[in-house]
Amino acid sequence: MYLNQFLLLSVFLFCAGMYGVMTRKHTVLVLMSVELMLAAVNINLVAFGAHYNDPVGQVFALFVLTIAAAEVGVGLAIVLLIYRNLHSSNPDEVDVLRG
Amino acid sequence: MLVAENVFFYALAAVMAIGAVRVVTTNNVVHAALYLVVVLAGGAGQFLLLGQEFVAWVQVIVYIGAVLVLFLFGIMLTRAPMRADEPLNNDLRALALLPTALLAVVLSIVLIDQFDDTKLGLTEPIRTSEVTRSIFRQYLVPFELVGVLLLGALIGAVVLARRD
After folding, report:
1. What structural domains and CATH numbers belong to chain A?
2. B4-85+127-161: CATH topology
């Protein structure tokens, strides 16, 4: 197996996530796309950890997982709050601060 | 052995790629969450293939077990449209493809240039004991900080979502 197999898979997942962040019309779906990007980064970290036979790749992947869990928790709370106040879950409609 | 590894990799990678595309294009919010499960489970399979057991099972438990349930709750609580009659992507679809393709091409060129025929240096699976030793010796302070951060996020989420 080549290292590049995993890195290119991760490139694809990251780009799919980026596309989702730019185009999705529902905030929960935007958060899901962010998760996709974080999963891609995790594959990268773990692939390099395996390449160098070092457990540190797994350690950093675990940190990313933890941060992702925290991000989803706070993110969904914010989405809920926006929905309650503006009755919309479309990030394009949240433009209260637009001048 | 090598052939079996490659077959496993490419089968998983194809499923993950299709799942990832469906996550960002499907018109059903719940389906998007379920496709995300497919992608993350495939990721766990790749971790197993790379001999990194611990992070693979953590991915299954934390992502598929906890984060996805949170997503489903988020979908329920915001009354997301479950019908497929209106597209859930905005009008920037074609425009957004441009930077996405650009990033993919640039990253692929750099990676192929740098690691074109680098064989994976994996000799044997990395044991959980090595991972925990690394966490609790070398990375103890970041580990504790992440614990505090999670607690902060928990309290913050409760404060934000609570009805007064």
Report:
1. 3-97 (1.10.287.3510)
2. Four Helix Bundle (Hemerythrin (Met), subunit A) (1.20.120)
A35 and B67: CB-CB below 8 Å? yes
Q: Is B103 helix (H, G, I), strand (E, B) or coil?
A: helix
Q: What percent of chain B has pLDDT over 70?
A: 96
CA-CA distance, A27 to A82, in Å (whole number)?
10
- Its ipTM equals 0.91
Rounded to 5 degrees, what are φ and ψ at A24? -70, 145
Q: Closest Cα of chain A to B68: distance in Å?
A: 9
Q: Which of B114, B46, B137, B119 is nearest to A3 (CA)?
A: B119
Query: Picking from B21-30, B74-83, B130-139, which range would have the lowest pLDDT averaged per residue?
Result: B74-83
pLDDT exceeds 60 at position B84: no
Out of B52, B58, B117, the one facing A2 most closely (by C-beta) is B117
Q: What pLDDT shows up at residue B85?
A: 65
Query: Average of pLDDT values for A35-59?
Result: 93
Q: Give the CA angle between residues B92, B97, B98 to the nearest 5°.
A: 105
Q: Is residue B116 predicted with pLDDT exceeding 90? A: no
Q: How far is A37 from chain B (nearest CA, A)?
A: 10
Residue of A nearest to B159 (CA): A77
Q: Which residue has the higher pLDDT, A25 or B144?
A: B144
SS (H, E, C) B72-94: HHHHHHCCCCCCCCCCCECCCHH
